[in-house]
Amino acid sequence: MRTPYPLPRTGISVDAHAFATDEECALDPAGMVPLWLAGLHWPGERGLSGHSDGDVVAHAAAEALFSAAGCGDLGSNFGVDRPDMAGAAGVRVLSEAAEIVILSGFDPGNIAVQLIGQRPRFAPRREEAERILSKAAGCPVTVSATTSDRLGFTGRAEGLAAVATALVVPAP
Ligand SMILES: Nc1ccn([C@@H]2O[C@H](COP(=O)(O)O)[C@@H](O)[C@H]2O)c(=O)n1
Ligand SMILES: C[C@@]1(CO)OP(=O)(O)OP(=O)(O)OC[C@H]1O
């Protein structure tokens, strides 16, 4: 369905990944699965399970772009059946998502993401994360964080979640 005149379009996404188990960490050459979150490596923090690097912030940002442009979702664009996506970096997922959205006739306007989790403490690295994600997406990406007050799976530190919204505009 088309609007009679071009409108910006909003999108939404939620992503969640469990922290890697002790068994998964034991298999890693470093003895611990590294945490990649919001495009950044977090030394000393336990990583996330997933087919890719499990970067919930980058994934939610990418899928919000797909949602806004009507390009399906993360799974329909980057399925776990794709061997080349095994261990894929979140910034790669986000930059490829932005390319797909542009090819479909939309320009990314902005993306807002909120990380939900007890740790890592995100705020001290917010600007660094926003810089790298904005570069990957080709539009401003802002990231906030909340703990969920120790409630739920994020509160029990079983994993991390992120929710994102995005705005895209029809290319002129
Ligand atoms: N992983 C996190 C979670 C939160 N923050 C910062 O703390 C502030 C207060 O957290 P609440 O759970 O009480 O909302 C929040 O606004 C963030 O600035 C963080 O840095 N990392
Ligand atoms: C990114 C993909 C593909 O490698 O793998 P996961 O790391 O499992 O991440 P998820 O957020 O579940 O999205 C599905 C897949 O598209």
UniProtKB/TrEMBL annotation:
InterPro entries: MECDP_synthase, MECDP_synthase_sf
Names of the cofactor(s): a divalent metal cation
Its biological purpose: Involved in the biosynthesis of isopentenyl diphosphate (IPP) and dimethylallyl diphosphate (DMAPP), two major building blocks of isoprenoid compounds. Catalyzes the conversion of 4-diphosphocytidyl-2-C-methyl-D-erythritol 2-phosphate (CDP-ME2P) to 2-C-methyl-D-erythritol 2,4-cyclodiphosphate (ME-CPP) with a corresponding release of cytidine 5-monophosphate (CMP).
Binding-site list for 4-CDP-2-C-methyl-D-erythritol 2-phosphate: 15-17, 51-52, 73-75, 146-149, 153, 156
Summary of subunit composition and partner proteins: Homotrimer.
CDD domains attached to this UniProt entry: MECDP_synthase
Protein family membership: Belongs to the IspF family.
Binding site for a divalent metal cation: 15, 17, 59
GO MF annotation, one: metal ion binding
EC number: 4.6.1.12
Note on cofactor: Binds 1 divalent metal cation per subunit.
Boundaries of every 2-C-methyl-D-erythritol 2,4-cyclodiphosphate synthase domain copy: 9-168
Pfam families: YgbB
Transition state stabilizer, annotated site positions: 51, 147
Gene (name only): ispF
GO annotation (BP), single: isopentenyl diphosphate biosynthetic process, methylerythritol 4-phosphate pathway
HAMAP family xrefs: IspF
SUPFAM superfamilies associated with the record: IpsF-like (SSF69765)
Catalytic activity: 4-CDP-2-C-methyl-D-erythritol 2-phosphate = 2-C-methyl-D-erythritol 2,4-cyclic diphosphate + CMP
Keywords: Isoprene biosynthesis, Lyase, Metal-binding
Protein name according to UniProt: 2-C-methyl-D-erythritol 2,4-cyclodiphosphate synthase
NCBIfam families recorded: ispF
Pathway field: Isoprenoid biosynthesis; isopentenyl diphosphate biosynthesis via DXP pathway; isopentenyl diphosphate from 1-deoxy-D-xylulose 5-phosphate: step 4/6
Top EC class of this enzyme: lyase
